[in-house]
User: What shape does this take?
Amino acid sequence: MIKIYGFPYTRSTRATWALEEAGAEYEFIPVNLAKGHQNQPEFLKVNPSGKVPALVDNDFVLTESAAICTYIGERFPASGLVPSGINDRAHYYQWCFFAMSELETPLWTMTKHTKILPKERRIPAVADSCIWEFQRAATVLAKHLDDREFVVGDQFTAADILLGATLNWALKAEIQLMSTVLETYADRMADRPALLRAREREAKAAAG
Ligand SMILES: N[C@@H](CCC(=O)N[C@@H](CS)C(=O)NCC(=O)O)C(=O)O
Assistant: This one.
């Protein structure tokens, strides 16, 4: 059975969301980031970078949330999480890379410069520029979603998971999406029953 190492309200929810969308069985193994368990030797054997999510499928180990969501889509093809036609699949990769580089990178750098880095390393101007960069990229996505329900073709894919998760992270950080289309899309993604199930499953497992 597939195992996901993760922690509630982190990128591991992308992996459990994908598994819930696929209707797959899985085991969720909490790695308590608040207590530093990501740096314990037992977990470092799974992911030497000490980050979640990590997926283990028998002897196969995979890290990086975008790669994990794509693996889940390919492992459970009936889920449609990864489109099968060559052009749709190419567009799927396009939007996954867009989510991780154009959208998530400025958001993550902004977060580091407001909350994560040691105080003396935080640069408020960098955080401001990152919000500007994020909003500029969000405009591109908003334009694309103007007449679409999902980002690729007419079906929900794992690219929607990566984009939806990133937009909701931005909203939680009180960054304006500057577009009703994007706000509606983010809400639609946040309301997916599979995401709600994934969150509940992670919270229950973490609570012990
Ligand atoms: N690029 C990685 C980032 C993974 C990552 O940074 N995970 C965070 C939680 S959202 C983590 O485990 N942080 C623990 C730490 O850095 O100590 C992915 O998308 O999976």
